[in-house]
Amino acid sequence: MKSHDHFFGRLEGFAVNEKNHLTLNSLDLVQLAQLSDRPLYVLNELVIRKNIRAYRQALSTYYPAESHIFYASKVFLNLGMCYLLNQEHTGLDVCSEGELFIANQTDFPHEKIIFHGNNKSQSELEKAIDANIFAIMVDNACELEDILKISESKNAITNVMIRINPVVEVDTHAYIATGVRESKFGVPIDDPSTWSLIELAFKSPFIHFKGIHFHLGSQITELTAYSQAIKKIISYIKRLHDKCIHVEALNIGGGLGAPYTIADQSLSIDGFIKELCQGICEEYQLNNLELPKLMIEPGRSIIASAGCTLYKIGHIKGDRSEILYAPVNGGMSDNLRPSLYQAEYSAAIANKMNWDGPTQKYKIVGKCCETGDVLIQKITLPQCSPGDVLVMFVTGAYQHALASNYNKHTLPGVLLVRDGAYEWLTKEQPYSDLIQHDLVPLHLRGRDKNLND
Ligand SMILES: Cc1ncc(COP(=O)(O)O)c(C=O)c1O
Predict the structure, then answer these.
(1) In percent, how much of the chain has pLDDT > 90?
(2) Which of 60, 171, 213, 338 is in Cβ range 3.0-4.6 Å of 251 for a Cys bridge?
(3) What is the structure's pLDDT at 451?
(4) 67 lines ligand 1 (CB under 6 A)
(5) Is the minimum distance from the CB of 296 to ligand 1 under 6 angstroms?
(6) Which of 244, 277, 369, 384 is catalytic?
(7) What is the 3-state secondary structure (H, E, C) of the chain?
């Protein structure tokens, strides 16, 4: 197996050293893997920055009016990431009080934060209103009423945008399609109450109605749904305009997919933005409208390809003639995507690059007590032995964010690599964390307690 057969050839920063080990930014991944007995998430800082800059560059090339990028923090968020985003002059899309809390710990500018969510709590709304963020993305009529009441009680004017579901066919996994009729998010474009909701926001003295938001879903690699949504939403904006309701901002959500395997189609950030901006500009021109502030909320396309996960192989199981089980020291507790929505990945054995020995088909399984804990259903790799380092590629998005303590596995640490050096971005979770919030009621402390006592 020659190195160029591997998917990693399409990714930035990877190479093979004289020991035939896989390296990332000149760091030997076999050595890095020895830093922990748990899996390790590794992020390449330069790729994150490059992707953000690619968005900025494309927007300034193809969109002639003002534009803003709000990184979707659900994808991966910690303190270091907030600082990095701020250095890159990028806004933040949060969807919970927890995400807002993390941003606040870094003094992230409130005017660069937007707040999402289909069931925001009173406390979340109050915090967002008090912070006077760029805008709350209103999901439904009851939420707008709550915002009105809170704003009135505080004598505040709250910035809002309304999340409209454009109701189009979206070509992605059903669990991550949001612009479809069945979605729980936003208000449907063809529902008359959506119009009343916008009118109410527009007329209220306690609301600054900034505009419209839509988000089609995630891991989208084909743009037909975008052009349909853009047409529908802009013709809706034209109808609002004709009733003197001004839409100053249009937020087109996130959604650009990342290639995870050699078979996956890939669309560059530049190509994606070019096509969307051309579509938007054309529709605005056709409708004789002035271009709005354009907002975009990318997540996966910024950080997925910047990440990889290092695992160690355990004892191989199975009959040599079939697909063998290769278990790793992690699993669905650090990467839920394969079990949640059959996501596929590529991998390599970092200590067996340029391999000319025997190869074998493996099913890469985790160590969680679930039959569905399979990370890769079938992959051909150099014949594996316990201790080999398996690198799974493109794991920067929705992995650490979806990780859990299932089976009481501790959460892996996150390493940030840059210029041949690494630093911890999040330390590995200690076992003491697993019990830090447990309390033992007094009556449970003694031994041999009789239930009738
Ligand atoms: C409202 C909203 N915006 C942005 C995103 C980010 O999407 P992606 O990571 O596909 O760019 C999501 C995630 O699905 C989302 O729900």
Answers:
(1) 88
(2) 213
(3) 60
(4) no
(5) no
(6) 369
(7) CCHHHCHHHHCCCEEECCCCCEEECCEEHHHHHCCCCCCEEEEEHHHHHHHHHHHHHHHHHHCCCCEEEEEECCCCCCHHHHHHHHHCCCEEEECCHHHHHHHHHCCCCHHHEEECCCCCCHHHHHHHHHHCCCEEEECCHHHHHHHHHHHHHHCCCEEEEEEEECCCCCCCCHHHECCCCCCCCCEECCCHHHHHHHHHHHHCCCEEEEEEECCCECCECCCHHHHHHHHHHHHHHHHHHHCCCCCCEEECCCCECCCCCCCCCCCCHHHHHHHHHHHHHHHHHHCCCCCCEEEECCCHHHHHHHEEEEEEECCCECCCCCCEEEEECCCCCCCCHHHHHCCCCCEEECCCCCCCCCEEEEEEECCCCCCCCEEEEEEEEECCCCCCEEEEECCCCCCCCCCCCHHHCCCCEEEEEECCEEEEEECCCCHHHHHCCCCCCHHHCCCCCCCCC
